[in-house]
Amino acid sequence: MDAVRLLKKLISIPSVNPMGRDVSGEIYFEGKLTQFLCDYFAELGVEYESIEVVPGRNNVIARTKVKPGVPTILMDVHQDTVPVEGMIVPPFEGTEKDGKIFGRGACDVKGGMASMLMAFTRLVQEDPPDAANVILSCTCDEEATVKGIEHLVNLWEEPSGLSQILTEPPDLGLVAEPTMLDIVVAHRGATRWKIKTTGKACHSSQPKDGINAIYRMADVLKALQEHAEELSQREAHPLCGPPTLSVGVIEGGESVNIVPDCCTIEIDRRVIPGEDGIDVMHQVEAFLKEKLPFEFEMLPPWITGVSLSDHNNGEWSDRLLSVIDTVDPDHKKVGVPYGTHAARVNQGGVPAMVFGPGSIAQAHTVDEWVEIDQLLKAEEVYFQFCANAGRVESSS
Q1: What is the pLDDT of residues 147-176, one digit of tens each?
Q2: What family is reported (predicted)?
Q3: Are 368 and 104 in contact (CB under 8 A)?
Q4: FRET pair for 245, CA 20 to 30 Å: which of 21, 73, 283, 381?
Q5: Domain holding 256: CATH number?
Q6: DSSP string of 275-292?
Q7: In contact, 271 and 191? CB cutoff 8 Å
Q8: 263: containing domain
């Protein structure tokens, strides 16, 4: 099987993350893809593990033959995709047209998964003499609450016996995401939480008898706009830009004829390297308390922002860039505003970087696609980088 056929197969196996919605059906969660990966690794004849993260959702970990005295590279790629509502191409057919593969996950990130799987397969079958030890992790729940990568990193942070493969920190984390074959060496993280305002319900014909929680939230929103503007003026990270704040969801009220007694919003605060994901919430709270004459409630975050800094991945990224140049010249190191698993790997004490086929501009789109040319080049880069990492390490 080549990377193109493999990608088509991966797309045909739905692994949609419900994103917190109360939905059901065969297209949701990673179970079928997890089973495919287990079967794939079993047929390849490598040691692998399927480890439950939350009920029904597993990480799958496989590794090449262990060799002493060479570095261990963790290649990570997530199993889940975003939902498919509104797509204008068949989401699960893996349609090939004009040098592209279309379908949900083609770009984010089953294209990267196909490239990594093929590179891993070649490493196993060819057993290059100068190869690193390679662990391939296929993690769950990247698109929503990142439980998969948190569980994976805990395997070496707090060994519990759940894994016999990943019992100590690897030397490097290489994460698959669409980067257009550039190397992401720094990126933002995201802290997300809710703010709640409360009021007093009454009949809408006598609104002065109550306290409108939505009106109160309007004042919160106005203050948050002011805070967001102040953030945009702060010193920017040279690769990731300034921190940002956005309100993406608002909910309130039960009926148009009732003055609402509750309103909530959901906040996305992008954290740049050097910022603390919890402290940024405290900054928002302090700012709002200074501006508002009423009480509000800050609910606990469901994601705490962890950014990726370029402070400790320079040597590894130099090596990767030299490999990319032999396959497809004129690429570079970049920073991006979105987050990836690399931040959590780095937080676990392991240098990390991000590389893969496709553009973030195609991720999550109604006609998601990836170029076949990039798919094949990414496979070759993954393979060559890992196949020679042992020799580079030994000579350094």
Answers
A1: 999 999 999 999 999 999 999 999 999 999
A2: Belongs to the peptidase M20A family.
A3: yes
A4: 21
A5: 3.30.70.360
A6: --TTHHHHHHHHHHHHH-
A7: yes
A8: 189-298
